DNA sequence: CCGAAATCACTGCGCGGCGCAGTGACTCGT
DNA sequence: ACGAGTCACTGCGCCGCGCAGTGATTTCGG
């Protein structure tokens, strides 16, 4: 077992924490820049990202949950995207209360083209990492993601300090 | 030199890209949850994070640049934080046009306490990574951060596709 | 030097995304 | 069959935000 109390290690933790904060701050700015460039809002871009990541269409509620919006705001979000031609609404045959939101590939081409272009450069970052390192990075991201959701549940359960 | 074209490696790239997206999506939700819990806006929390990360106070303009807001909106942001007692305004003696924004430690204690609590759990994630892995993760984050800023400059230089 | 230009924080104004609360349509459990 | 729960959707009002302009201060060119 590795020693988790060494002074080197403490410094590594601190560096990682600092880089994480900078990384996340940069991401927010980057996302904003992408949205500006496309003439959309960050939320809209985020939603398109969600839709393209999923193999099948999402319902309005699923979009609301994954973006942190209320269902009302999610309806408006889909309104904007539909008006812009990015998505179409389809009634769900299984449950007629639900509405499926399907992305329109042709309209999304411009967006994905931009992502692909930016992603290509991004991949070159990974080229001089070993496979073990890549696995370690991926593992850390996944576990941080999981912890994030755990913390969110904790925060929502906690009473508001006011 | 490692082979960067192998099928395993391509799969690792894809996994890492997917986990990154999930990680970043979770961060946005997490940040929102923290802000909700404190009765603040995500932007406000982000600003407090910036202020506490820096050893010396920032000017309104610096806050604007680092949050992606206009100076006008940054003024309003500082207004909110000042009204809430989180920061104080101090005129800059060197340049009398400028205003320095200084965090108020006592008022921020509650916020940092929450961060520390959440950060403690977060650190346990790192305990079963080797030091080499930690270095690899940190390096990746730093380079991704740098690339992000490069891409932002590219995006701003590009013409709007409209 | 002195006046023009740049930069700073700040302010009115209007837009629009968002949460809230309520509505009707639909599904499900008993 | 009927009530409870869930779905997407809709007015309404709030307020964060960008935009454009202002005055104060600094910087720079002739």
From TrEMBL, chains A, B:
GO MF, any single term: DNA binding
One Gene Ontology term from the biological process aspect of the record: response to stress
Lineage: Bacteria, Bacillati, Actinomycetota, Actinomycetes, Kitasatosporales
InterPro entries: HTH_CRP (IPR012318), HTH_MarR-typ (IPR000835), MarR/SlyA-like (IPR039422), WH-like_DNA-bd_sf (IPR036388), WH_DNA-bd_sf (IPR036390)
Name the UniProt record assigns to this protein: MarR family transcriptional regulator
Record-annotated HTH marR-type domain positions: 9-146
SMART domains listed in its UniProt record: HTH_CRP, HTH_MARR
Domain of life: Bacteria
Organism: Streptomyces argyrophylli
């Amino acid at each position: 077992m590795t020693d988790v109390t060494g002074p080197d290690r403490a410094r590594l933790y601190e560096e990682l924490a600092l880089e994480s904060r900078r990384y996340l701050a940069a991401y927010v700015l980057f996302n904003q820049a992408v949205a500006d460039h496309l003439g959309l809002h960050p939320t809209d871009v985020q939603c398109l990202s969600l839709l393209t990541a999923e193999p099948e269409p999402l319902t309005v509620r699923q979009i609301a949950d994954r973006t942190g919006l209320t269902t009302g705001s999610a309806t408006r979000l889909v309104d904007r995207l539909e008006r812009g031609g990015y998505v179409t609404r389809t009634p769900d045959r299984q449950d007629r209360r639900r509405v499926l939101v399907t992305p329109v590939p042709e309209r999304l081409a411009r967006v994905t083209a931009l992502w692909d272009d930016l992603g290509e450069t991004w991949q070159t970052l990974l080229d001089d990492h070993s496979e073990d390192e890549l696995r370690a990075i991926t593992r850390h991201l996944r576990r941080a993601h999981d912890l994030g959701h755990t913390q969110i549940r904790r925060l929502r359960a906690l009473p508001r300090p006011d």
